[in-house]
Design a protein that fits this description.
With 343 residues, this protein is mainly α. The chain has 15 helices and 3 strands.
Length: 343
């Protein structure tokens, strides 16, 4: 059995996505039973929708793909070999699915993201009139543990910047580049993927600002200061020397390059930053993302408005930014406990 197809379905986004797949040259249409094909086909339609029309980040789409694969596999297992329909899934099935994920050992954060994917999928199914209601809407998400983000205090950050600057003074391309990346991370709070994607035209060394492409491919302009500018100017000089030496085979558009003249990979950036973090007394498990946390925490500690920090970080909701206020409050509590005689 397959879900009933309404007139809206035949003319909606789901039908357009299926037609596009059917019309793709060189692809054969598998001769499978409609009941077996319906749920995976609709999942593919939704994934195409969130990728192309909602512009979700590729990593998010990849995660949702895995989440919906788990969900449809669970539904098929519950059907015990019989045909099943998305329209017959109710809240009890989804709650059983979450229990299944918990028993499988998934972390609460992963379970919450999976539930979010199922909710979004059914919201789209309801809008496209494949189902009458969204059974995931009333299912409560698991309560997530509150982890304060790891960050470096002002003294440790200053020591880190000085250590990177000392290395860069020797003039090696890699060290000059790594200092520029560190200064830019700390000056802007950019995400790892945003810094990796930077192109030459995104960095304005005159007006002291950089264009970042964040989640959902949203662009934002972030200012930076003179310290970052100096590091970037020095790196640009070494970058130009490298491009002249390598010649036409180099990547002239990418901003941060490896010694072979190609765009520096995400892994390469991570290794460079963790190598620098190992030089100082950084918090346990501190990674490249800790530099983003450090940027936000230091701004709020210095009195920056929460909304301004939200804009700089590219957060869609101010509630995401509020975790950094918790970091500041926790540090105040620790200072109070150490210093106050009646604490």
């Amino acid at each position: 059995m397959t879900p009933a197809r309404s007139p809206r379905d035949r003319g909606g986004a789901g039908a357009r996505a299926r037609a596009a797949r059917a019309a793709a040259p060189g692809e054969a249409t598998p001769a499978t039973d409609a009941a077996d094909d319906a749920p995976p086909a609709l999942v593919a339609d939704w994934l195409a929708y969130v990728a192309k029309e909602r512009n979700l980040a590729p990593n998010t789409v990849k995660a949702y793909t895995a989440d919906l694969a788990r969900f449809t596999a669970f539904c098929a297992q519950q059907a015990r070999g019989a045909a099943w329909e998305l329209a017959t899934v109710d809240r009890a099935v989804i709650r059983a699915f979450l229990g299944h994920l918990n028993r499988a050992g998934l972390e609460r954060r992963s379970i919450a993201r999976t539930l979010s994917a199922v909710r979004g999928f059914y919201r789209w199914l309801q809008r496209e009139e494949h189902v009458a209601a969204n059974p995931a809407r009333a299912v409560r998400s698991p309560k997530l543990p509150k982890h304060l983000p790891a960050h470096l205090d002002r003294g440790t950050m200053d020591t880190l910047l000085q250590a990177a600057a000392t290395r860069a003074m020797e003039g090696r391309f890699v060290d000059v580049r790594n200092l520029a990346m560190l200064e830019l991370f700390y000056a802007t709070g950019m995400r790892l993927g945003e810094l990796h994607a930077l192109s030459r035209g995104d960095v304005d060394l005159v007006s002291l600002r950089v264009k970042a492409r964040g989640k959902g491919r949203k662009e934002r302009i972030i200012p930076f200061g003179q310290a970052a500018r100096l590091a970037l100017v020095n790196y640009e000089s070494r970058r130009d020397e490298l491009l002249r030496r390598i010649g036409p085979g180099a990547s002239r558009d990418a901003w941060f390059l490896n010694p072979r003249g190609q765009r520096l990979s995400v892994r390469g950036i991570q290794l460079a930053m963790t190598g620098l973090l190992a030089l100082v007394d950084a918090p346990d498990g501190a990674s490249t993302h800790a530099l983003r946390h450090t940027f936000a925490t230091h701004l709020l500690d210095a009195g920056a408005e929460l909304r301004a920090v939200q804009e700089l970080l590219g957060h869609a909701s101010v509630s995401t930014t509020q975790i950094y206020t918790h970091t500041s409050i926790e540090r105040l509590r620790q200072a109070y406990a150490k210093a106050h005689p009646r604490a």
